[in-house]
Design goal:
Jelly Rolls, 3 helices, alpha+beta, eight-stranded antiparallel sheet
Length: 222
């Protein structure tokens, strides 16, 4: 995932030459009507996995496969780098039938057809969904899931694997969007939103929060 502070390359463009053509008055032949999708910047949520399914996924986790996945942002000159994320993660396992990947794709397609209308392709092997563990003051500060290193992410999904009572803090928040904190904390709940929407996980102050974080990919925006 990419932070707001990630360095980017700046390119220059050539200034267009002035045209001699006269500006035409608008008429039915030269006016383009634009139709907006008012639902594209929204979040969809639904009960998704049963409690026993969440437990089965966590049971498949391998102790030795947990990896520290901290993210550190760029620092200003003379200042200490800001830590943007503290968590551990491992790849989401999949059975011989493709579960739970196939189930996620089915719901993502429904959400996309209903709201987002994006050009989706599916999962990208080099960017698989992750089981993420937040504990001991772990957090993820405001960030975007799409960027130079991840240009094909179109939809972000988060699936709650822990009981709400298992931890304190660790709330999902999306910038400038209304969210139901209690609903998002329900075990088995899924949240789907465009990957260009800034979001964060507040600091876990007690206990452990486990969740699936992943992305449905598609052709890069042009």
């Amino acid at each position: 995932m990419n932070s707001f502070t990630e360095a980017v390359e700046v390119e220059t463009v050539t200034k267009p030459k002035p045209r001699d053509k006269k500006i035409s008055k608008p008429n039915k032949d030269n006016v383009v009507e634009l139709v907006g999708n008012k639902q594209i910047v929204s979040v969809l949520t639904s009960p998704f996995l049963e409690s026993k399914e969440c437990d089965a996924i966590l049971k498949e986790c391998v102790l030795e496969l947990w990896m520290q996945s901290d993210v550190v942002g760029q620092s200003d000159k003379g200042k200490k780098k800001k830590r943007l994320r503290e968590a551990t993660q491992q790849n989401l396992p999949m059975n011989k039938e493709g579960w739970p990947y196939t189930k996620v794709l089915e719901l993502a397609k429904q959400a996309n057809d209903a709201n987002f209308k994006m050009n989706l392709a599916g999962f990208f092997q080099a960017d698989n969904p992750q089981i993420v563990k937040y504990k001991n003051k772990s957090f993820y500060d405001w960030h975007l899931d799409i960027g130079n290193n991840a240009p094909f992410r179109k939809l972000t999904f988060i699936i709650q694997l822990s009981d709400s009572d298992d931890y304190d803090g660790g709330n999902i928040e999306l910038m400038n969007m209304l969210s139901d904190g209690e609903l998002f904390r329900k075990k088995g709940q899924i949240i789907i939103f465009p990957s260009f929407v800034p979001w964060r996980i507040t600091k876990v102050t007690k206990g452990v929060r486990n969740a699936i974080e992943g992305w449905v990919h598609g052709p890069s925006y042009v």
